[in-house]
Design a protein that fits this description.
By secondary structure, the chain is mainly alpha-helical. The chain is built from five helices and two strands; from the N terminus they run ααααββα.
C-alpha cells in the first residue's frame, strides 16, 4: 500500500512539473518572444530595435546573474530617460513562475 501511495505521489509530482514547463513556455511565447525571439537570440524586429541581448551566447549568460534577471522581470527595464524598455511582470507572474522563466532563459545557452 505504501508503495502505491509513493508511486502515486511521484506521478503527481512529475505531472505537475510537465504542466509547469508548459506554463513557462506559454509565458515565454505570450510575453517574451516578441522581443527576445523563440530561441532567445533577440533577432526579432522589436528585439533588434531595442538591442536586446542574445541569450544563446554563453558570454551573455555568464554576465547575467539570476537576481538581476528576476528583478528585471519583476520591475521591468527603463532606459536613461525613464522610458520602458521592458514591461514589468511582477504583477503578472508569481515568484516561482519568474524563477522558471529565468531557468527557461538559461536553457538557451549554447
Amino acid at each position: 500500500m505504501k508503495r502505491i501511495l509513493l508511486l502515486g505521489a511521484c506521478l503527481l509530482l512529475v505531472g505537475a512539473t510537465v504542466v509547469r514547463a508548459d506554463d513557462t513556455k506559454d509565458a515565454w511565447e505570450k510575453d517574451c518572444r516578441k522581443c527576445h525571439g523563440a530561441e532567445g537570440k533577440g533577432d526579432t524586429k522589436m528585439g533588434k530595435k531595442l538591442e536586446v541581448k542574445d541569450y544563446s551566447d554563453a558570454a551573455v549568460q555568464a554576465a547575467m546573474k539570476d537576481p538581476e534577471m528576476i528583478k528585471a522581470i519583476k520591475e521591468g527595464i527603463k532606459d536613461k530617460e525613464g522610458k520602458d524598455r521592458m514591461k514589468a511582470y511582477g504583477e503578472t507572474y508569481k515568484d516561482d513562475q519568474i524563477k522558471a522563466l529565468v531557468a527557461y532563459v538559461r536553457a538557451f545557452k549554447k
